[in-house]
Amino acid sequence: xxxxxxxxxxxxxxxxxxxxxxxxxxxxxxxxxxxxxxxxxxxxxxxxxxxxxxxxxxxxxxxxxxxxxxxxxxxxxxxxxxxxxxxxxxxxxxxxxxxxxxxxxxxxxxxxxxxxxxxxxxxxxxxxxxxxxxxxxxxxxxxxxxxxxxxxxxxxxxxxxxxxxxxxxxxxxxxxxxxxxxxxxxxxxxxxxxxxxxxxxxxxxxxxxxxxxxxxxxxxxxxxxxxxxxxxxxxxxxxxxxxxxxxxxxxxxxxxxxxxxxxxxxxxxxxxxxxxxxxxxxxxxxxxxxxxxxxxxxxxxxxxxxxxxxxxxxxxxxxxxxxxxxxxxxxxxxxxxxxxxxxxxxxxxxxxxxxxxxxxxxxxxxxxxxxxxxxxxxxxxxxxxxxxxxxxxxxxxxxxxxxxxxxxxxxxxxxxxxxxxxxxxxxxxxxxxxxxxxxxxxxxxxxxxxxxxxxxxxxxxxxxxxxxxxxxxxxxxxxxxxx
Length: 483
What we know:
This protein is mostly helical. The protein folds into three domains: 1-121, HUPs (Rossmann fold); 187-272, Alpha Horseshoe (Serine Threonine Protein Phosphatase 5, Tetratricopeptide repeat); 283-471, DNA Cyclobutane Dipyrimidine Photolyase, subunit A, domain 3 (Orthogonal Bundle). The protein is 51% helix and 5% strand. It contains 23 helices and five strands. A five-stranded parallel β-sheet has the order 3-2-1-4-5. Helix 8 (187-205) crosses helix 12 (250-272), helix 12 packs across helix 17 and helix 15 (325-338) packs across helix 17 (359-370). The termini are far apart.
């Protein structure tokens, strides 16, 4: 019996484990693991998206057997029912919890003489310790064959065993709830979003991605479908290539395709160095941000910092599960630079909030924005400048911080500029209706720059950076002028 274990690959096409396993009779399973739901980076919105994705497969005649329990317990029971099994799955570059689970399961399956065939889900190499040759490897992956499953005839429908692993009734009900502000999961939906993006939106993508409202429409919105495997990076890349002749704005298309590569690049960082989930990429930064300020962290999480764009973004992501990249960078910058809090204080909160949470991208980006890699440009985003540039008419802020919506736009960006007379005129009380700024940005900005640049320019940081570049960046051939 071939068993296909679905994880972050909830689709039927470009799915090599499924394609190979289904050449014979096979059982397709998904495991809702209690340990995952109890982990610091999990939110029910993630499992809702998974549940919707599984239901989408089932509506198209594809049988998936769902279990609620720990993976090793499910496989122990399956081994009793089917003494001769082989397990097919994609390799997962996840958090430490999934890594430790896979190690334990691999040990069990080996003792039971069960073959576990793991396949690479995208251009990420296990065991890679330096980046030379990675670009070539990635290009071979995205240009390779996307296998097509044309028949579900070998996929078994009935298995009573799953009744032994039923989720609690309240979880069963919660999985069926729908939040209209969040994307709905499924391979069908992923394909639809890709088609809409390439046919209706790609021309204006590049000029819109940094703006909160424009990005909501003109970005592909495929990140959640990629993260949960409703669609593969290879499928998207090849669809973009097929559309190239029809796209007038080639820069827009090229910039989008570059980001497909970045997706795998950042996941490769975690694959190469799993410790970045918890530790600074560059140990030279270990001595900073040692103390947590619970008041600051809570205000940031709740969207009550007194900085309108930050608060709008934090409320938006909590309700909708989505922020564009610029806002993600801005809120992390605010937490780590302006509030001077350790980046670890925010990773769990935003992991739970992001519907498209992808561990490899999440921790790499958090550390880039926090300035703890030692090799990336230090960026400290000014929330007022970003607000005025990217949300000029305060449309995004008015939507998510409604207590400011009746103020003139100039005051919405900087409500602390309201005089006592202004506050009376607009029936608004700063400090009661909306908080005063939690800190002085300019003061904190100067302090953060001094601290971070001092460490980045230190000998210790430079020495550490050489090893970081070797692991995470390809070598470049610099030719001398005149040669």
